[in-house]
């Protein structure tokens, strides 16, 4: 602009020596017109540049992770809901405008564990199974929460399991092995870039060190962190001064109850999400925040090969996303929501026999396998250690059948064929007549063989079949909603999510 103005001025000076007064007047008017147009150009240029740049970076980023939640877990829950009416007809995130598929392999194997997957999801770096927040050479790597904090944003994590379990810990911790719970608990307390954290409690190595969850809660308070148990305690967090940890209403539990076992007053994942939004928006409305939320017990139900429990956990996770969507409705141009999983658990298959599914057969289930086992121990007259209680009365086979009908639906709503009944009789004989109880162990629970097989049989009759009780290498869904959602169309692996978040958020 200044070059053109200078040329115009030189032209005017030259002409002033050669022309009459009326020529000078004309040139003055011409120069004024040129400068007026040029003054307007920068504003127009800025407007065009803004158009070229596209949407503004999202301020509020919700990173939702369903632990163990593969495609069949999602659509198996949706099928159940549509048949029974016990949940939303459509799982909310399946309706997000951008949906893609990601791979999950770790640096050491094609089938990842939660630590390696959590590290990839949190940092964008692949590592070996059991490695947490470190690269394959055991060097610490930073998470998206750390980088958000560096940009002046807030950061939070919430989960239905221990707050220092693999997935949430990947967002703040660094450990050569995921089971270094004491170390990870200490790291969370020291991680000033995590403003809000919520979970069942602190997992710990109490048998090795004597330090339980209360020990680390006390250490948190000594560090000036607010520690609250249950929503009655944490109340309005938007005005709380300092970092905050929100835990289960029951201090003795380091994880939340399964959704199907919860009663009024029990802490649930939606409670944590509401508290996190209250705190993070209250403190970082202007700068923005990153909030990771994990449905951590979908995985537990998958390890236990328990379809009914898995469905309820998936619905509970979706309910927490409803809370996020309510926030999105108030801030649609500033909010980004990503939903994915760390891996699939259990190798769930949908369909049985002659191209059939009968999800309604699972409707009778009101308790998780863990709680059914607790009730079964009462029937069997044994304690938590499975040793006979004083005055024990051994149940009859008919009483066991009645129990399985009441809690699982066998013989009542689910037909039991002759071969399966013969198998149950054999299990009863071993457990109660020979006193040689068979135990089935999964990663997070222990079950009587009779209860475990009864649940597996009911699942199969309903059309939910499990390959095994562990992780698989199946690809997963990535579901995105927000102004920059289409930027994630190129994401094909879990390690690419964080780099894309940082790209669109510009931190």
How would you characterize this protein structure?
The structure is a single chain. The chain has helices at residues 2-16, 21-53, 71-84, 114-123, 144-150, 166-169, 181-190, 206-209, 213-222, 231-234, 269-284, 298-303, 307-330, 369-380, 397-407, 418-433, 449-462, 497-505, and strands at 60-66, 98-102, 154-159, 196-199, 226-229, 244-247, 289-295, 335-341, 344-345, 348-350, 439-441, 446-448, 464-466, 471-472, 476-482. With 507 residues, the protein is α/β, with parallel strands linked by helices. It folds into three domains: 2-43; 61-349 and 475-505, Alkaline Phosphatase, subunit A, CATH 3.40.720; 362-462. The strands form four sheets. A nine-stranded mixed beta sheet has the order 2-15-8-1-7-3-4-6-5, sandwiched between helices. The relative contact order is 0.16. Mean pLDDT is 91; it is low at 1-52.
């Amino acid at each position: 602009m200044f070059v053109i103005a200078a040329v115009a001025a030189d032209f005017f000076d030259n002409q002033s020596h050669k022309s009459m007064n009326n020529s000078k007047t004309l040139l003055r008017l011409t120069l004024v017109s040129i400068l007026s147009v040029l003054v307007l150009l920068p504003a127009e240029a800025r407007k065009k540049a803004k158009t070229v740049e596209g949407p503004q970076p999202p301020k509020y980023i919700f990173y939702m992770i369903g632990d163990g939640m593969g495609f069949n877990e999602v659509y198996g829950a949706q099928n159940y809901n549509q048949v029974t009416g016990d949940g939303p007809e459509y799982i909310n995130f399946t309706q997000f405008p951008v949906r893609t598929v990601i791979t999950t392999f770790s640096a050491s194997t094609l089938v990842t564990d939660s630590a390696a997957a959590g590290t990839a999801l949190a940092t964008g770096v692949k590592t070996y199974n059991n490695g947490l927040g470190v690269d394959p050479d055991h060097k610490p790597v930073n998470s998206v929460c750390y980088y958000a904090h560096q940009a002046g944003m807030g950061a939070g994590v919430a989960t239905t399991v221990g707050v220092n379990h693999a997935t949430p810990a990947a967002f703040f911790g660094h450990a050569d092995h995921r089971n270094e719970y004491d170390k990870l608990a200490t790291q969370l307390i020291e991680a000033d870039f995590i403003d809000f954290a919520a979970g069942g409690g602190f997992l710990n190595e109490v048998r090795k060190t004597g330090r339980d969850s209360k020990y680390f809660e006390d250490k948190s308070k000594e560090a000036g962190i607010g520690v609250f148990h249950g929503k009655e305690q944490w109340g309005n967090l938007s005005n709380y001064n300092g970092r905050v940890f929100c835990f289960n209403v029951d201090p003795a539990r380091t994880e939340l109850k399964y959704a199907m076992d919860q009663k009024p007053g029990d802490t649930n994942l939606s409670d944590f999400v509401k508290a996190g939004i209250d705190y993070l928006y209250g403190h970082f409305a202007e700068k923005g925040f990153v909030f990771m939320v994990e449905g951590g017990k979908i995985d537990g139900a998958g390890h236990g090969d328990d379809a009914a429990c898995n469905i309820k956990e998936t619905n509970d996770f979706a309910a927490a996303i409803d809370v996020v969507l309510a926030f999105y409705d108030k801030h649609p141009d500033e909010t980004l929501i990503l939903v994915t999983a760390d891996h699939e658990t259990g190798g769930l298959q949908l369909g049985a026999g002659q191209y059939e599914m009968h999800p309604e057969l699972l409707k009778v289930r009101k308790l998780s396998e863990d709680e059914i086992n607790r009730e079964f121990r009462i029937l069997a007259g044994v304690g938590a250690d499975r040793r006979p209680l004083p005055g024990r009365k051994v149940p009859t086979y008919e009483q066991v059948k009645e129990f399985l009908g009441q809690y699982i639906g066998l013989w009542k709503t689910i037909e039991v064929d002759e071969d399966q009944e013969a198998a149950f009789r054999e299990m009863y004989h071993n457990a109660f007549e020979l006193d040689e109880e068979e135990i089935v162990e999964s990663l997070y629970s222990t079950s009587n063989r009779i209860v475990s097989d009864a649940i597996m049989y009911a699942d199969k009759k309903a059309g939910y079949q499990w390959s095994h009780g562990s992780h698989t290498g199946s690809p997963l869904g990535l579901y995105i909603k927000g102004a920059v959602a289409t930027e994630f169309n190129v994401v094909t692996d879990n390690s690419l999510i964080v780099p894309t978040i940082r790209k669109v958020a510009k931190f």
